[in-house]
Write a structure and sequence with these properties.
With 231 residues, this protein is of the alpha+beta class. The chain folds into two domains: 102 residues, Thrombin, subunit H, CATH 2.40.10; 94 residues, Trypsin-like serine proteases (Thrombin, subunit H, Beta Barrel), CATH 2.40.10. The protein is 21% helix and 40% strand. The longest helix has 24 residues.
Length: 231
């Protein structure tokens, strides 16, 4: 009996530590631009608008979904705003798009501050190398509903789900995993981790036909884009 209790406590501790690493790795992605006040015919101080979520993974690589940032390529910075990454008790820093993979809805961002990626290595998540298991519990964290749920520290919202289905189409270019759970807009780019703390995928869209099933981008695509950035 004593041995069983010890095992249970150890498992619980690992899960708690995994969730801590998950929460610490997540950052909000936003744009900052001054707002024009017609009544004063002048610009107000710059405002932050949260677009989605990103996270540290591998050896200092910052990843999000392509659709979170691809709109910033369509106009000058004066119109679309400056891309920033931060929150979660961290300052917002200017960022730029390093890789944009529209086919798999993934992007890598570069932070403007020198050696910043090196400083974040202890916050990086690791990517699983084993096939996902249907019925396995997963956790994810992000910034749903943009600015509306932000607290003073801009900490992410934590949530849980279960792996419900895996992509089985041999002709599918983009492999997706279906999660049973609940997401809202702004969770795009959130890392989804297993109980061992490893990333199994990235939240890419909100439920469409069902309110309790959503897709995540499979870890295989995440690994490839991280390898490309570090090669």
């Amino acid at each position: 009996m004593a041995a069983k209790k010890a095992t249970k406590k150890t498992t619980t501790k690992v899960a708690e530590n995994s969730n801590d690493v998950l929460m610490n790795s997540v950052r909000s992605i936003g744009i900052i631009k001054p707002a024009f006040d017609p009544s004063k015919q002048d610009f107000s101080p710059p405002e932050l608008n949260i677009l989605g979520t990103g996270f540290w993974v591998g050896e200092g690589v910052f990843v999000t979904c392509a659709h979170v940032v691809d709109g910033l390529l369509s106009g000058p910075i004066e119109v679309v705003g400056a891309l920033v990454v931060g929150g979660n008790r961290s300052p917002y820093l200017k960022a730029s798009i390093s890789i944009l993979d529209l086919e798999h809805d993934l992007a890598v961002l570069q932070i403007s501050k020198k050696v910043f990626h090196e400083e974040q290595k202890e916050l990086c998540l690791s990517i699983t190398q084993s096939k996902e298991v249907i019925g396995a519990n997963v956790s994810f964290a992000g910034y749903p509903l943009g600015n509306h749920l932000l607290n003073e520290d801009h900490t992410p919202i934590f949530s849980k789900g279960v792996i419900a289905h895996t992509s089985s189409s041999a002709n599918s270019i983009r492999k997706e995993i279906k999660i049973s759970g609940s997401v809202d807009g702004g969770f795009s780019g959130s890392p989804v981790i297993k109980e061992d703390g490893q990333v199994v995928g990235v939240v890419s869209n909100k439920p469409q036909q069902s309110q309790s099933i959503f897709n995540i981008i499979s870890w295989e695509h995440l690994q490839k884009i991280v390898d490309l950035e570090t090669s």
